[in-house]
Amino acid sequence: MSSLSIAPVAGRIGAQITGVRLGGDLPAGVVAEIRLALLQHKVIFFRGQEHLDEQSQVAFAALLGEPTAAHPTVPALDGNAHILDLDYRSGQKVDRWHTDVTFVDRPPLASVLRAVTVPEAGGDTLWTNTVTAYEYLPAELRDLLDRLRAVHTNQYDYARLAGADDTAREHAKVFASTAFETEHPVVRVHPETGERSILLGDFAKRLAGLSGSTSAALIRLIQEHVTEVENTVRWRWAPGDVAVWDNRATQHRVVHDFGGRPRRLHRVTIAGDVPVGVDGRPSVALAGDAAAYSPLAA
């Protein structure tokens, strides 16, 4: 009998798992249960994992798949090529809804995020379920989205940086130092569950074949539906917490209500496949080669 306890956190997304000490030595049966919970709940949370360090975080992540490089453009944490150091003080502000690294042709399968330093209040993370977002759309809108494709890029809308400090500007420069652009289906078919999910988020800049104004209006309309509160879960971080999310079925964002207080988390991403649309067409890289970031998942 399993020692794991899995309790939903919200109605459509999220579950907390207790009864496990994370690391690279988990039995195969426990890993299988964790993977099943991830597919079912889209994001799973573990409290009290203070024993984890950089090496054991990567070792646990490797049980879920092959870890990628830390990021296609942002340097890794010193001493560990797989860890992206998400330190608010470094200018990494992720206050818009996004799915990780969708500007490449093989976005991560999953992300494993560990809290290192978090403020006493504020700095929560929100996730939204892009599968239920699709399922609760009117049939007419689902039919439209099934046929659309969107271009995602890491190139900034530099108007957003007006008034930003030097640290944020330098981070933006590094983030966009190599241009990546990929055309993805707006609706992808999940390779394990067969569910349909909406693939958009902040890296989606335009809809293929549509004018700029029409693209912007449609993306805004769809994103407003994706991020309706009924599709979301909110996690209050404590040191030692770990969150794992299915990057193929979610978007997320940080709540920036913590001022200048320290907030630092370490992220490892797991190599993913090339998304495939309802019509069977895969995503297509338009600029940039992501081979150094991520192998193609089997």
Automatic annotation (TrEMBL):
Stated name of the protein: Alpha-ketoglutarate-dependent sulfate ester dioxygenase
Taxonomic lineage: Bacteria, Bacillati, Actinomycetota, Actinomycetes, Streptosporangiales
One GO MF term attached to the UniProt entry: metal ion binding
Pfam entry (one): TauD
UniProt-listed Enzyme Commission number(s): 1.14.11.77
Keyword Repeat: no
Cofactor or coenzyme needed: Fe(2+)
Originating species: Nonomuraea turkmeniaca
Reactions mediated catalytically: a primary linear alkyl sulfate ester + 2-oxoglutarate + O2 = an aldehyde + sulfate + succinate + CO2 + H(+); 2-ethylhexyl sulfate + 2-oxoglutarate + O2 = 2-ethylhexanal + sulfate + succinate + CO2 + H(+)
Key words of the record: Dioxygenase, Iron, Metal-binding, Oxidoreductase
One GO location term (cellular component): cytoplasm
Annotated ranges, domain TauD/TfdA-like: 6-269
Protein family membership: Belongs to the TfdA dioxygenase family.
